[in-house]
Each structure stands twice: as C-alpha cells, then as structure tokens.
C-alpha cells in the first residue's frame, strides 16, 4: 500500500489568545484519509487551531504548510459549530447547498451544478428530502445539509467544529456514520473538534489533546485509556 499523502503540516506552531498560551511548538502531520479528533476542555484553543489550519488566523509563531500540490484552502470543506437558519428566508435543501457553489443564491443551476448538489445530498442521506425547507428540517437534517454544503466542491478534507452538539443520540449516530463512511470509502480527511468521547473512541485514527497550558498530546485511542481525559 502506498504511503498516504500529507495534506497539512503544522510546524512548531504556537498560539496565544488574550495573553493566554494555548499551545506551544505543536508539530503534527495530517494525511489523506486521517480521522483526527481534537479534544480538550473549553478554552484550550481547539476552534482557534482549526482557524489556523484554514489560514484564517496567523499563528504567534510557526507555520501551517499545505504540502500537497493539489491541496489548498478551496479543498477544505468547513462545517461551523453554529447553524444559522433564517426562517424568514425560506430555502429548500437544494438551494441551501447551492449557496456554497456561488456564495449567493442564483435563479438557475447548470446540469453540472445539480449533479454536484444531488451527489452531496445523497452522501448525507438527504436525497429524498431535497425539496424540503431547511427551516422545517430536524436538527440532524440541518447538520447533514451543512455537511452536504462542505462536500459540494469535492474537498480532500472536511473540518467540523462540534458537529454533534445539540443533536439527539440517533442524529449523532447518523452524522458520525456519514463522516466515517466519507473517511473510509472516499478517503476524505476528517478533522473534528468534539466534546463527545464516544465519537472519538469509535472513529478516530489520530487524536490531538490540548491541555490548555501550552502543552498537548498526540496519539490514538490509547491516549484516552492512559489518561484522565477531560472533554
């Protein structure tokens, strides 16, 4: 089996916020097909780190390097923590996903556009609900629609900030099944910020634990077995 391509390399990465050191000299390689879970208590810099990965923030020191020639910010799909649903602006799921194609709503879609959207909706198990209004959909369906948005540009990596937050157990399970299938079958790299231990244990190939005092730990599931981990 060929060596997996490294997509992002974090080199001696350090970051502070409001004079608090979040992490210092963080070194990490994120490869194609990884399922990386970023864990740690609130305020340890998890969301800040994914902003650094997407180059939306500049680190205090160190580098975020995109190492694959075919990989750039456009090849990263992002699912935010907060779902902003405007009930006064009714969108069906097809229209909602199309927003990511053009960053605005246009009155027509090409055949190629519609294929991209239908493929994304199918991957998140919403192909039979494409005409449903987003505002009338369940929390789990809304979250899957956000994942479909992230998929519409055929990304090599998807970064998700607490994607199961506020969902019931059934919806959590479905979201995680979809992400795992993307990782295993499509070799999409998944980077997940989470406070859900079960999601980490069942799905991660790599775990990064931020301790909040500048230190961090990198490992696999054994990291959870050998430590009193606070989520």
Can you give a write-up of this model?
The protein has 231 residues and is an alpha/beta fold. It folds into 2 domains: 1-71 and 156-231, 3-Layer(aba) Sandwich (Rossmann fold), CATH 3.40.50.300; 85-154, no CATH class. The protein has 7 helices and 9 strands; from the N terminus they run βββαββαααβαβαββα. The protein has a 6-stranded mixed β-sheet, sandwiched between helices. A 3-stranded antiparallel β-sheet has the order 2-1-4, with helices on one face. α2 (93-102) packs across α3 and α4 (139-151) packs parallel to α5. The two termini are 35 Å apart. 34% of the residues are buried.
Structure at a glance:
With 231 residues, the chain is an alpha/beta fold. It contains 7 helices and 9 strands; from the N terminus they run βββαββαααβαβαββα.
């Amino acid at each position: 089996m060929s060596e997996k391509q490294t997509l992002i390399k974090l080199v001696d990465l350090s970051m502070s916020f409001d004079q608090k050191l979040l992490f210092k000299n963080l070194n990490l390689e994120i490869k194609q097909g990884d399922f990386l879970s970023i864990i740690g208590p609130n305020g340890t810099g998890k969301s800040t780190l994914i902003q650094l990965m997407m180059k939306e923030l500049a680190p205090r020191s160190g580098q975020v390097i995109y190492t694959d020639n075919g990989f750039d910010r456009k090849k990263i799909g992002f699912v935010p923590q907060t779902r902003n649903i405007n009930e006064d602006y009714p969108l069906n799921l097809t229209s909602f996903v199309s927003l990511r194609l053009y960053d605005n709503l246009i009155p027509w879609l090409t055949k190629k556009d519609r294929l991209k959207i239908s493929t994304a909706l199918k991957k998140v198990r919403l192909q039979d609900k494409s005409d449903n209004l987003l505002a009338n959909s369940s929390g789990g369906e809304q979250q899957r629609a956000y994942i479909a948005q992230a998929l519409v540009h055929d990304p090599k990596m998807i970064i998700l900030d607490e994607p199961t937050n506020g969902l019931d157990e059934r919806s959590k399970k479905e979201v995680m099944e979809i992400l795992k299938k993307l990782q295993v079958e499509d070799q999409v790299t998944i980077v997940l910020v989470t406070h859900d231990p079960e999601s980490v244990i069942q799905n991660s190939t790599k775990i990064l634990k931020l301790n909040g005092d500048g230190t961090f730990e990198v490992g696999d599931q054994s990291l959870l077995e050998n430590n009193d981990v606070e989520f």
